[in-house]
């Protein structure tokens, strides 16, 4: 708004607070431009637009981050189609996670400083050149981890660590079945189960190429569930002993076959329904072999149990810095190519983590 516009506004009475703060913030800080590009969902089920949006001043506990990379998650796609468990009000910027550099800190911020390299989880906001987050939701990226690798950690590795360590109590030597195994979360699960927890992973995926990748990334065996009978294959692979831990991201018949394949006192963790069908679990199956079925909704831990959430993030960063885990980046798209990135994921064309390059 030009100065003449401002005086016209003032002559009409009090200015609403958001406009006033924006007007006061118009003086640029070094590195903070007045506008930044962001992916915007204005209407569900239509392609996203890239728009220039005005910056706003940060609050005392907030941090402005210059986004370098942000992860694409299945949840972003579902949210933009109105099919996710959370529905942000329109318009919104999708994106749950980012890796970037601190541009500006609020007056109360003590955890990071300008120039620090950070990752963050911040529901629906990160697919943009800038993102404002509460200081609590930032973790410093240790030396030796690139921005790209760091962007692949929060959601996938956070979920994998939570599901395998905290929920399923996976023990060394146990058999872990991972479905959608060559996907972003799938490969993270294989990495954590094999290399941190010393479990034996059986990967299940929708093509021979995806099975091959899962084997290259640490699975001991793989089953292509688009061919043959998953339950029979799992019986053969475990010598009839069954699976100790199932982490299922697909749902429907795949989930049922996995549940039927659990061993005595096996644990199933449901993390998603990428196939679209939600299984109604026959509870007799739980009783017969004393098995447990549970769920994981990773981002909800931010609200319900932040210390567990934060511990998963710091573990992921530590495992990565130590070289015990290696995120697999399967595709890098530019911010402007966000609709192509979404399409690749929904068409099952991607393997590993897909990230958006924002620079
Ligand atoms: N609960 C949580 O906190 C949490 C956290 C992260 C992810 N998730 C869930 O985990 C799943 C995987 O997410 P992601 O971000 O890692 O995505 P992703 O694995 O990159 O993509 C989804 C995979 O699901 C499989 N799939 C099966 N049926 C499909 C269908 N009809 N359409 C598309 N894909 C299908 C595909 O593998 P195949 O071709 O091998 O079948 C595909 O590669 C999603 O359901 C997501 O919501 C949940």
From TrEMBL:
A GO cellular component annotation in the UniProt record: mitochondrion
GO molecular function, one term: oxidoreductase activity
Domain of life: Eukaryota
InterPro entries referenced in this protein's UniProt entry, alphabetically: ADH-like_C (IPR013149), ADH-like_N (IPR013154), ER (IPR020843), GroES-like_sf (IPR011032), NAD(P)-bd_dom_sf (IPR036291), Zn-ADH-like_protein (IPR051397)
CDD domains from the UniProt entry: QOR1 (cd08241)
Annotated ranges, domain Enoyl reductase (ER): 45-356
Family: Belongs to the zinc-containing alcohol dehydrogenase family. Quinone oxidoreductase subfamily.
Name of the protein: Enoyl reductase (ER) domain-containing protein
Source species of the chain: Vombatus ursinus (Common wombat)
Gene: LOC114047643
């Amino acid at each position: 708004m030009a100065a003449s516009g401002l005086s016209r506004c003032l002559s009409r009475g009090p200015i609403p607070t958001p406009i006033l703060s924006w007007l006061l913030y118009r003086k640029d800080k070094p590195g903070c431009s007045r506008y930044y590009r962001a992916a915007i969902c204005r209407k569900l089920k239509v392609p996203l637009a890239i728009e220039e949006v005005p910056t706003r001043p940060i609050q005392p506990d907030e941090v402005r981050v210059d986004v370098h990379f942000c992860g694409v998650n299945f949840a972003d796609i579902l949210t933009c189609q109105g099919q996710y468990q959370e529905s942000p009000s329109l318009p919104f910027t999708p994106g749950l996670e980012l890796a970037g550099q601190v541009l500006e800190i609020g007056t109360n911020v003590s955890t990071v400083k300008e120039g620090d390299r950070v990752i963050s989880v911040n529901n629906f906001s990160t697919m943009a050149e800038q993102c404002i987050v509460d200081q609590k939701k930032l973790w410093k990226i240790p030396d030796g981890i690139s921005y790209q690798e760091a962007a692949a950690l929060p959601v996938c590795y956070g979920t994998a660590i939570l599901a395998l360590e905290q929920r399923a109590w996976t023990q060394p030597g146990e058999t872990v079945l991972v479905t959608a195994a060559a996907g972003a979360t799938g490969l993270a699960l294989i990495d954590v189960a094999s290399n941190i927890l010393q479990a034996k992973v059986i990967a299940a995926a929708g093509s021979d190429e995806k099975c091959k990748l899962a084997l290259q990334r640490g699975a001991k065996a793989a089953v292509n569930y688009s061919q043959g009978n998953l339950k029979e294959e799992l019986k053969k692979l475990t010598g009839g002993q069954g699976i100790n831990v199932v982490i299922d991201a697909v749902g429907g018949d795949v989930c049922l076959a996995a549940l039927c394949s659990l061993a005595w006192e096996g644990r199933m963790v449901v993390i998603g329904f990428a196939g679209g069908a939600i299984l109604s679990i026959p509870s007799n199956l739980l009783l017969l072999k004393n098995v447990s079925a549970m769920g994981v909704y990773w981002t909800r831990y931010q609200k319900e149990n932040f210390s567990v959430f934060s511990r998963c993030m710091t573990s992921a960063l530590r495992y990565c810095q130590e070289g015990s885990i290696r995120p697999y980046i399967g595709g890098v798209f530019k911010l402007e190519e966000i609709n192509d990135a979404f399409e690749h994921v929904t068409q099952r064309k991607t393997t590993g983590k897909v990230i958006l390059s924002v620079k």
